[in-house]
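Fresh eyes needed here. I'd like your take on this protein's tokenised backbone:
***
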Amino acid sequence: MLMIGIAGGTGSGKTTVARSVIDRIGADKVTFISQDNYYKNFPQLSMEEREGLNYDHPLAFDNELLIRDLKLLREGRKANTPLYDFSRHARSEQQLELLPGRIVVLEGLLVLADEKVRELLDIKVFVDTDPDVRILRRVLRDIQERGRTIQSIHDQYLNTVKPMHEAFIEPSKKYADLIIPEGGHNQVGIQLLSALMENVLAGA
């Protein structure tokens, strides 16, 4: 089994890169995991309190659960993972069933920031995109997909997103085996990563 981690800042295009390589390889051959689904759950807090949490700090993620699921897949066993609802800042009552495959793609902000997660990855990728492009993409996404207001996006970006990127996400780039500038627009980087995955499948 080949485990690939794809990290990068908010709006960098890491999800686009992940989806692009999966489309090339075939979704039936790849198990996709979003780190976003492993945000810790705080049902005891009010919506206002949950909105004020720092979602860009490494401690915001339940990496123990993520590591457990990665190990289950490595052992050839299925994993039932959480499903996060961003409109409520809470986990959904539903779960996702992940079946083990020859290739696992894990995508998320801080995939490379945790040593224990990195140890499980065979290939570590960092998607590196200009900050201006990233924030514009985040504004559009949060408004269109997550029901956020401009003011809440502005406050969150200045208070947590930007400082956490500089403190944790950007430094994790040093652990990458492959850096893909400009995300989904970098077809050469996507082709290279796809070729590595195809080589693994060819040797299956």
In short: The first strand starts at residue 2 and ends at 8.
